[in-house]
Amino acid sequence: MTRFTAACVQVNSRDDMHDNLARAAVYARDAHAAGARFITFPENVSMMSFGGDKVRAAAFGEQDHPALAFFSDLARELESTLIVGSLHVSVPGEDRVANRCYAIGPDGTVLTSYDKIHMFDVDLANGESYRESKTFRPGDAARLVKTDQANIGLAICYDVRFPHLFRGYAKAGATVLTIPAAFTRTTGQAHWHTLLRARAIETGCFVIAAAQCGDHPGDRQTFGHSLIIDPWGVVLADGGTEPGFITAEIDLERVNEVRAMVPSLRNDHDYSPA
């Protein structure tokens, strides 16, 4: 398969898992009706809670996670590949939880999972402060997954600021990068489009980034603007600031065309560090 229709579902998740999942499924079914068979969801798609205690209390083990079962059923219903941006998953023997992305095949089988590697531990100039590492255990492994549509490099949100991860994916055979996110409104306005277009241009990959939008518990505000970007850095679809979905046609031949024009993945040259 060299052509397929991809979708980003954009949602405003809050602290009611049942409601969050129901709303996400509505948009996923609409995207399916529009022709998408590769459907992606944002980070924290099942729950946006405020405070470490609430996050831990709302987490489940992988084997009995109701959201994972829900998305497996949805994949079977739609006969589509789903990239579930992230769920909060309890980790045996750990006080912290995993922020875990799942790739699910059209038969509902989990193809692989990826734990967010880079933790958003920052203090912004407007007074916003985040310490993800207090609540989430960082992952330690990249995950490249072969789906019916393409070879996909998995990442989550803050990972986008670490370009070596994506270059590694491209060199390992990825043609599509998925970067689900709950980007803050402050950093999103400044950097979201630029970072995602840069990752596409640097790697010659399509970038598909489903995003959270709107206001959430704890006065959190997310930027929205789910994006689908081609390997030349052209934005094919932008989700704006409201819940919904976007689609775009992915033509994997475009990856070969762009990499032939600018073969930067083959032009690495060894050098001594500063």
UniProtKB/TrEMBL annotation:
Residues 4-252 form the CN hydrolase domain. Keywords: Hydrolase. It comes from Thalassospira mesophila. Belongs to the carbon-nitrogen hydrolase superfamily. NIT1/NIT2 family. Gene3D superfamilies: Carbon-nitrogen hydrolase. Coiled coil: none annotated. This is Amidohydrolase. One of its GO terms (molecular function) is hydrolase activity, acting on carbon-nitrogen (but not peptide) bonds, in linear amides. It comes from the Bacteria. Pfam families: CN_hydrolase. InterPro entries: C-N_Hydrolase, C-N_Hydrolase_sf, Nit1/2_C-N_Hydrolase, UPF0012_CS.
